[in-house]
Every structure is written in structure tokens, then in C-alpha cells.
Specification:
about 325 residues; globular; mainly alpha
């Protein structure tokens, strides 16, 4: 696989967009500092609270990350690029129209592609984390919130790619009227929960995938993500991330007292932590009917989930 050609824009253009995006935020961040102090907040807290609800949570990070050029992945383009050197056109068309599993692509083949995707995104996030910590690197005045967004931005790229490889439909990552759809934020939150081993996240993700394979319509699934069934788990994950981020903020986790050392350590930390998180999500997605027709699943659990989803009111 030629990883350098798999994304639009390419990695060179992507890093260029990152640098430009960070630079454009420097003035804005500096302007917010005075206002933040007046309201008893640090500049970092002010910059990260993008939804304006007065707290730093995973929704803020997801929104920030999705706004970075290159983070959003188009399912059809990605799948066609990944499969074009491996399978005939009719198989690719079937995989795009339905799922890779429906097209007869073995889950073991999907695993190989997924592992390459994880390695690629891991190298990218580690490189940029180190660069952001170097003196003068990518507008140092804004690196604290931006470093966080970049880390999760690459995680969101990996999440989207794995969802599509293991059979999920396109998720809506387009911003509308300065807001992202609640179901989009919730499904990404669920995936992040699975990546970090938050209780219930992996099982709910597997159940959702099995339900999709059994014919639950995307519109009905949106209701489950925003009204019930999945929603309590999503809220639990959000709470877990909120506590985690608050602790990291007070511990100075995101600050780089010595830029050169901070950059080198930052790159090493992201390289070490990124893959295990992605591996957990891969393991959650690979053993479902959606990704593997031979998966060992509980049919009663699926039927119960489908009944709950179908029973949700408009």
C-alpha cells in the first residue's frame, strides 16, 4: 500500500494545512487571554471550550479536531483507494455500495489494511507532536490547545477509517451552522470510549454494528444515539473524559516547560499511546456480523437492541 497517496490532501499538504491552521489561531488565542483571566479561566481553558458550555469535555475536543483540514474522511474515496490494488473493480464497487464483508473481503484482509492505517496515522501524530514542541515550531503561542486537537484529530481519522473498513456507513462529519450533528459526536465519543477501555463502550459498539448488519436503518440508529439505548453509555464516556481532562489540565499535562525536551517526550508519548488505543477499537469492530459473517454473536442481544431502537419515538 502506498500510504502517501491514500489521503486527500496528501501528508505534505496536510502538515502544511496544520501549520497554517495553527498560525491563524495565534492572534485569536492571544485575544482571548485577557477575557479568560477576567472570568477566572486560563487561556487554554478558554480556547478549548469551543461549545461555550463552561467546561472542557470530549465534545470540545471532537469539534476542534473535526475543524482541522484533512481530518474528515470520505468513506467511498477512502475505500476505493485502499482496495484498488488488491481487488477487482466489481468487488470494490460491492464493498462501497454495501460493506467489505458483503463483497467477500475476508476480515483477515481488512485487519492487514487496518494495521497499516494505524501505523500511518501513528507516525503522523507522533511527528507533529514532536514538531509542535520544538522552539518556533508551528506558532508556539498556540501549541497547548492545538497539540491536543492534533492528537485527537489523528485519532478521529483512524476512527473513521476503521469504521468504514469494518462495515459502517458514512458518518456525517460536515459542520452545519457552526454545529456538528449530535449523532456524529456521539458515535465518535463511543469509539473513543472503546479506545480507552471505558466501561460499556466496546460492547455497545459491537451491538450497534450487529444491529446495522441485521438491517437497522441509519435513521433509527441516530435515534438510539441521541435518545436512548446507546445514549446513556455515551454520557458515561463523556463524563469519564471530562474527569480525565480536568485532572490533566490541573497537572499541567499539556504544558511544555522546556520546548525541546517537551517536543521529544511529547512525540514519544503519542507514539507509545496511539497504537494501543487504536488496537482496542479494531478489536471491538472486527468481530461483528457487519465485518465478519462468521462472527460469534448473541442473537437475542441483537434482537433486544433492535426492538429498543424500533420502539424509540420520533
Amino acid at each position: 500500500m502506498n500510504d502517501k497517496k491514500q489521503d486527500q490532501p496528501g501528508i505534505g499538504a496536510f502538515f502544511g494545512n496544520v501549520a497554517k491552521n495553527v498560525s491563524n489561531k495565534v492572534t485569536d488565542l492571544a485575544g482571548k487571554t485577557t477575557d479568560a483571566v477576567a472570568h477566572g479561566k486560563t487561556a487554554v481553558e478558554q480556547a478549548l471550550d469551543v461549545n461555550g458550555d463552561g467546561k472542557i469535555d470530549i465534545e470540545d475536543i471532537i469539534i476542534l479536531s473535526l475543524r482541522i483540514p484533512g481530518v474528515r474522511i470520505v468513506r467511498e474515496d477512502f475505500l476505493r483507494t485502499e482496495f484498488k490494488k488488491r481487488f477487482p473493480q466489481e468487488v470494490i464497487d460491492d464493498a462501497v455500495l454495501y460493506t467489505p464483508a458483503h463483497a467477500g473481503i475476508a476480515v483477515e484482509e481488512i485487519d492487514k489494511i487496518t494495521n497499516s492505517v494505524i501505523a500511518y496515522e501513528r507516525n503522523c501524530v507522533s511527528g507533529i507532536s514532536a514538531a509542535l514542541g520544538m522552539p518556533g515550531g508551528f506558532a508556539m503561542a498556540a501549541t497547548i490547545p492545538t497539540d491536543i486537537a492534533q492528537y485527537y484529530g489523528f485519532m478521529l481519522r483512524a476512527i473513521q477509517k476503521m469504521l468504514y473498513l469494518y462495515g459502517f456507513p458514512q458518518i456525517d462529519v460536515e459542520e452545519k451552522n457552526q454545529h456538528f450533528d449530535s449523532e456524529t459526536l456521539n458515535i465518535i465519543t463511543l469509539c473513543l470510549g472503546a479506545m480507552y477501555g471505558v466501561s460499556g463502550a466496546s460492547n455497545m459498539l459491537k451491538t450497534m454494528a450487529n444491529a446495522l448488519a441485521k438491517g437497522v436503518e441509519k435513521q433509527l440508529l441516530k435515534r438510539a444515539l441521541t435518545k436512548g439505548t446507546i445514549y446513556p453509555v455515551v454520557k458515561s464516556i463523556s463524563k469519564w473524559f471530562g474527569v480525565r481532562m480536568t485532572k490533566q489540565m490541573f497537572a499541567g499535562f499539556f504544558k511544555k516547560a522546556i520546548p525541546v525536551v517537551g517536543g521529544l517526550i511529547g512525540g514519544g508519548i503519542t507514539f507509545a499511546t496511539f497504537k494501543p488505543c487504536c488496537d482496542k477499537l479494531r478489536d471491538s469492530l472486527r468481530n461483528t456480523i457487519l465485518s465478519n459473517p462468521n462472527a460469534n454473536v448473541d442473537p437475542e442481544e441483537i434482537d433486544s437492541f433492535i426492538a429498543d431502537v424500533n420502539g424509540l419515538s420520533e
